[in-house]
Amino acid sequence: MDTVRRNNVTVTGNPQGRPVVLAHGFGCDQNMWRLTVPALAEDYRVVLFDYVGSGRSEPSAFQEDRYSSLDGYAGDVVEVCEALDLRDAVFVGHSVSAMTGVLAAGTAPERIGALVMVAPSPRYIDDDGYRGGFSADDIDELLASLEANYLGWSAAMAPLIMGNAERPELGEELKNSFCATDPEMARVFARTTFLSDSRDDLKQVAVPTLVLECSQDVIAPREVGAFVHRAIPGSTLVTLDATGHCPHLSAPEATNEAILKFLAALR
Amino acid sequence: MCRTGRQPDPHEAGDEKAADAAFAALLEDSAEDLYESAPCGYLSTLMDGTIAKINTTLLNWLGLERQTVVGRMRFTDLLTVGGKLYHETHFAPLLRMQDEISGIALEIKQDGGGRIPVLVSSVIKYGSMGELLLIRTTIFDARDRRAYEEELLRGRKAAEEARKQAEADRARLQDALAVLQQSLLPDTLPQVPGVETSAYYHTASPDRLGGDFYDVFPVDGKRFAFFLGDVCGKGPEAAALTSLTRYTLRAAALHNPEPVSALTTLNKVLHERYSGSGDPRYCTAVFGTLEAGPATGQTTVRLASGGHPPALVLRADGTADYLPTPGGLLVGVLPEARFTTAATVLSPGDTLLLYTDGLTEARTGKDRTSLYGDDGLLAFATSHAGTPPHAVVQALTGLLDSFGDGLDDDTALLALGVPASHP
């Protein structure tokens, strides 16, 4: 299947600029970047997409076994880069996507030349000598929360959500659709995200990397940010004065400033 | 007629003042009291989640004192860990993108360790300059509702499990049926010297084991036997009868390949098996032998029929005729049965065709009320006379397909022919 359609790829910004790929994390879709895109659009070619199983990706492309490991999501990233023939792109990944970017940069080094990791965590569950912030039971609780909230999702709504970007009159009905995902697919993504352990992959990162963390983040606490920064040789750590896990929404100016500064220093 | 505006009833205007006074007396509680003692929790938080204001109802649910909460806790501190994760990945981003979010199911933690399922709605309040000021949140007790939803979910999961199980069972059953069905028919027909063979089996419904059967096999050094027939009924009982019939005929033919003898043995076996069972069963069948004739390229066919439609002979010269076997009895009904014999010689280019009545009883016509019939089949056979067995079977397969839903019975075809002598 056509990757551009499969992953609902959107390309905007300056066609001559260096490509910047913005990848959403678990939960919502590419709309999460709505406050980031305008800041990048003038100088960069901005590429947005939805992972298969999220947003308005093609539901029939979902395969549980593929998306039960982060490699499956990294495969989406590499295939989007290939479909657009991106070279030396800057990959900006939020949350679990930061780790997806690490994997993708490892497989396709010619495609990805720099990484911005927004609120990354290589492992969410506590381990010997490592504090990720969660226990396996906590993840089960999250799965229960997902089950209790089929946000904007119903069998009747699904086709509208998945395939009708061109029908704005549905806007009102489509409330919550940015986070509307087929419950089965959301469950797979949640499990893959929160049960993943990518700590060993961090050492392999060989491109300039910016680690952006929030001063108050339940999901990726500061010690995790510090861990990522320590593990990636030569990375830059910036702590944003922001609460929550989505600084690109809660503190967009500071987030954009940090990203732009990093991008400017790349050349 | 359309009413363009509200027109008060005449008596309403006069009563308005009195009503207002009565309501005012009833509604003596202040806005403050309405806020504090509302039947739902109220919460105002700064944009970073810090709790700025909370009502008494919610404090009571939480079992917390105001001073330990206001300015000291964030909204997410009230949630379970799973709820926090959900808040960060769904609730907060959606609230930022939409300015409001409603009816989200979460759980709040009580001081004593208990949990209360709640439904949470939030809206962002902006200042006069459009700046983000705070988040107003309403929290409803959803204990009963959640219990009900959990029951529904449980029911749904159980139904889903049952469905998966049923699908698996069905798949297993289909596999078993397919194996059983295969055991009722030969995998391939043997090579018969000087004779070309071709067969086809149309299954009307994959779920229901068919009751048609055929076979071709060697009986001694010079003869081959063949049979084709149709047992009454469908399903497992018919399959058991088919199996018994097939193996009885094969065994009987090895003992004595004379057609009448083989059918007589079958008649005895079926009658003995089913007559006392309260479920009398029978079949129709044609049984015959093929023997290379004295002249090269000729094969003598000798057959007997027990209540089965007559075989057709398609000649090399383009003619076709039934090989009548009238009066033969159904096999297995009576203790002693009479069977009708017939014989013919197949010369090069001739083909003997056996079939079951699925073919002649296929319903045709627009309203599916006419039967294809013996005459229709004879005309079709005539038009294909002179073609080799596989071509005849192929043409008939196409004919069966063309019947569509008019063909509702299993149909077996067996064609035996002597290849034409031309190069």
Automatic annotation (TrEMBL), chain A:
SUPFAM superfamilies to which the protein is assigned, alphabetical: alpha/beta-Hydrolases
UniProt cross-references to InterPro entries, sorted A to Z: AB_hydrolase_1, AB_hydrolase_fold
Origin superkingdom: Bacteria
Cited Gene3D superfamilies: alpha/beta hydrolase
Domain AB hydrolase-1: 20-258
Any one GO molecular-function label of the UniProt entry: catalytic activity
Entry's family note: Belongs to the AB hydrolase superfamily.
Protein name as annotated: Sigma-B regulation protein RsbQ
Naturally occurring in which organism (per UniProt): Streptomyces echinatus
Native organism taxonomy: Bacteria, Bacillati, Actinomycetota, Actinomycetes, Kitasatosporales
From TrEMBL, chain B:
Domain of life: Bacteria
SMART domains: PP2C_SIG
InterPro entries assigned to the protein according to its UniProt record, in alphabetical order: Bact_Sigma-Reg, PAS, PAS-like_dom_sf, PPM-type-like_dom_sf, PPM-type_phosphatase-like_dom
Domain PAS: 27-79
Pfam families, per the entry: SpoIIE
GO MF term set: phosphatase activity
SUPFAM superfamilies: PP2C-like, PYP-like sensor domain (PAS domain)
Coiled-coil residues: 145-183
Enzyme class: hydrolase
Assigned EC number: 3.1.3.3
Keywords: Coiled coil, Hydrolase
Cited NCBIfam families: sensory_box
Protein name: Sigma-B regulation protein RsbU (Phosphoserine phosphatase)
UniProt organism field: Streptomyces echinatus
Phylogenetic classification of the source organism: Bacteria, Bacillati, Actinomycetota, Actinomycetes, Kitasatosporales
